[in-house]
Amino acid sequence: MRYLVGVGNYMAGDDAVGPRVVEQVVADGLDRGFVAVDLSTDALSLVAYLNADTEAVLVVDSAHLGLAPPTKYGSGAGATEVPRGILFHEYGYDDEGMCLGGNCIIPTNQNHNNIQHDFDKLVPELVAQDKSEKEMELALEMLVRSYDPCISCSTHYLDVKFVR
User: Fold this and answer.
1) Which residues are 4's β-sheet partners?
2) Within this chain, do residues 96 and 117 fall inside the same structural domain, yes or no?
3) Are 23 and 46 contained in the same domain?
4) Engineering a disulfide at 6: which of 10, 18, 74, 120 sits with its beta carbon 3.0 to 4.6 angstroms away?
């Protein structure tokens, strides 16, 4: 699947060029071969569209309009519902509008303690069933993916080392 994604919001004071481009592409019938998606201000929900069948994603977000630098700056935090839980995020900006840093607490981090407890329960069961190392590794990977289907590949979260 291929996606054309528009990000922006008419009501939030940005130029909303992303949604405008998506609207025009659809209105002109140019959306052949891909899916046009307006994410408004929720760009993080793009992850819900990504999977093994995703070929390409083109994100249209903003245009340089020569506007004056922002008059408000500092830091802010928020919480957004995302696949698999709540994303807590915080960002800081300088007086020129440049992002100084960010901190994201993703749902997988929030679930890490539960994942570890499930490992502690599952491993003795697998040993008692005399599973092979390959079968154990697969079972543990399946457990991690039940919490977050992307984490085991995207971060190589699981590195099984057998100690006898």
Assistant:
1) 36, 58
2) no
3) yes
4) 18
The two counts, helices (H) then strands (E), for the chain are 4, 6
Backbone angles phi, psi at 150, to 5 degrees: -95, -20
What is the value of pTM for the model shown?
A: 0.45
pLDDT by residue (tens digit) across 112-139? 889 899 999 999 999 999 999 889 988 9
89 assigned to some structural domain? yes
Residues 78 and 49 in one domain: no
With contact defined as beta carbons under 8 Å apart, do 30 and 9 qualify?
A: no
79 and 43 belong to one structural domain: no
Q: Which of 81, 31, 29 is nearest to 58 (CA)?
A: 31
- Span 9-36, pLDDT tens digits: 766 666 777 888 888 888 888 778 888 8
- Can you give the residue range of the structural domain that contains 127? 108-154
Three-state secondary structure call for residue 81: strand
**What does the block give as tokens for 95?**
């007086």
Q: In what order do the strands lie in the sheet with 99-105?
A: 74-82, 85-93, 99-105
Structure token digits, residue 132: 């092979």
Q: Are residues 37 and 76 in the same domain?
A: no
Q: Are residues 44 and 86 in the same domain?
A: no
- The domain total for the chain is 3
Distance CA 155, CA 80 (A): 22
